Amino acid sequence: MKERIQKLLSRAGYGSRREIERMVNAGEILVNGHRAESGQAIDENDQVTLRGQRLHLSSRIHATHKVLMYHKPAGEMCTLSDPEGRPTVFDNLPKIRAGRWIMIGRLDINTDGLLLFTTDGELANKLMHPSSEIEREYACRVMGQVDNEMLIRLQEGVELEDGKANFIRIKDAGGEGLNHWYHVVLAEGRNREVRRLWESQGVKISRLIRVRYGNLMLPRYLRSGHYKELEVRELRKLYGLVDMQFEDGSDFNAERPERSSRPSRSSGGPRPGAAAKPAESGRRGVIGGSHPSSRRASLARPASPAGAGGGKRPPSPRGRSR
After folding, report:
1. SS3 state of residue 208
2. Which residues are catalytic?
3. Which of 15, 98, 186, 245 has its CA 20 to 30 A from that of 127?
């Protein structure tokens, strides 16, 4: 069965749909000796070349895909290469024979925390697409005076230069003075959105850590600069979050993960890391794990916090602005 070239090459792990479309428009892809067109229908039997190299679509499409959780340290760039020679998140990833690592979203250079990579471009596209409304949770250390009215405004929505934005939930995670932490949840990934929302209220973020993406929590044992490859059970739940089935050669039918209404509790702080290497599993699993910077806390206003088993934005109440 033929598919659009962006979808098929993305599914084979050659990049996200947007990246494939850029390659097509730049004339870097040929199909059966002719320049490819955006939206062209192809299948795995077509001869496709990318920058002069023949693509082995059949073996790539039927290969088992991988997903990595990486604990990005502050100071690393979310890019394949940096013209200024600064370290990038790709420097620390393991080498793979089939496919390439596709970054799911990004974090700015001063933000650390959970970053996902996959060899499945279709999964990456769905996890990043705004229509999926996948939740991202951040721990924020806020500098400045924060009152309840400010927190309500941030949840109801404020106007930024690129449109209205808001936090779905805000949780006071404790601390005093310049060491006061909040946990905030978004269902989109605009550039520097968390920082810009806080700055719109006259306060600044002195530290920002992404602690959750969808139903994946940053594990306590995963040190900065280290990565962990997801196991089959975790992959099935992640794929189910965006209504996809993880193909591992078995007859298992992926089920959509159940949501939990119980907020996570944890303590401590992220441990400093060294050069990236695989992390050993601790007692807490990735899905349903916890992050050190969160504490037992109260919400700024009534809301139902999503547990680690959820990951999608809950339906908005009628009449509430987004």
Report:
1. strand
2. 108
3. 98
